[in-house]
Amino acid sequence: MTLSTKDAVPAPGGALRQARGGRAAVGADGRTPPAWVRIVAPIAVGVIILVLWVLVVDVLAIAPRALPSPLAILNDLVKHSDIIVEDMGITAKNALIGLAVGAIAAIALAALASAFAPIDGMLAPLVSAIAVVPIVAITPILNTMFGASSQFGRVAVAAIAAFVPVFVNVLRGLRQTRPVHRDVLRAAGANGLQTFRALTLPTAVPYLMTGLRIASSIAVIAALVAEYFGGPADGIGTAIATYAKSGRASLAFAYVAGGIAIGLAFFLVTSLLERIATRRKPV
């Protein structure tokens, strides 16, 4: 699928809907579900899955040998919490740096694409190519290129993965200002910088936050995959690959839980920032 910068849209249910109405998601019948339902529902699903897992593995004993018991995973998670937390810090650092680098590059290039049509035309095929680059294909190349002892290849993979959603959403946001609003500011004597600060930036910020929310989860996944396919002998991805191959499935799943915790932390932080940024209705 070809990605066009002119057809870029923010994520469904993202900042655009919040910024334009500030309304919560509505169900098929048009009613807004209570806040407690949106909190309790995913927790209930998680509890049901956990109960079924224990039933299949510990009670009925019909699970494959490669699927460990939740109790065994919890035991390894507690027993090896020190090294798991240490590896989580490495993975989170790689993902965070990659997210920051990718977001900064995306914002800068989106601003140029929005201001200059020729640059937009040049960037469109480049962004399309980046969007379809397989992480599992480029990771070994970058790890080999920058050396087995360097974290740079992993950071680069996370940055590449985070670049596209931020670029697409920011470019869309920069193009949302209405000509009539720009004409009003121009008639009031506002210069280009004042117009950007008072009109363009507030309109684009919700889109930026939506892009960061999406990119944060992708950056964590990319960092994990990059660790899985080589580089230094640390990080969540490397540990999962090592212990899964050595038959220590419960410890591998404990590291998976650590990776999930990192992803949730990134998602919750960026979602909170998005909520804060979209409280102000753009022009």
Description:
There is one protein chain. This protein has 283 residues and is mainly α. The protein has a single domain, classed as MetI-like (MetI-like fold). The protein contains 11 helices and no strands. The chain has helices at residues 15-21, 35-59, 70-79, 81-115, 117-131, 135-146, 152-174, 179-187, 192-228, 236-245, 249-277. Helix 4 (81-115) runs parallel beside helix 11.
Please name the defining characteristics of this protein.
single chain; 283 residues; mainly alpha; MetI-like fold; 11 helices; globular
Q: How are the secondary structure elements laid out?
A:
Elements: H1 15-21, H2 35-59, H3 70-79, H4 81-115, H5 117-131, H6 135-146, H7 152-174, H8 179-187, H9 192-228, H10 236-245, H11 249-277
Radius of gyration: 22 Å
**Terminal Cα span:** 33 Å
Which spans have pLDDT < 50 for at least 5 consecutive residues? 1-25
Alpha-beta classification: mainly alpha
> What CATH architecture label applies?
Orthogonal Bundle
Residues in helices, as a percent range = over 70%
Instruction: Please tell me the total number of domains.
Output: 1
The CATH superfamily turns out to be MetI-like
- How many beta-strand segments? 0
Listing every helix as H and every strand as E from the N terminus to the C terminus, the arrangement reads HHHHHHHHHHH
Q: Give the overall form.
A: globular
Beta-strand residue fraction: under 5%
What assembly state would you assign to the polypeptide chains in this entry? single chain
Give the helix tally: 11
The chain-level mean pLDDT equals 81
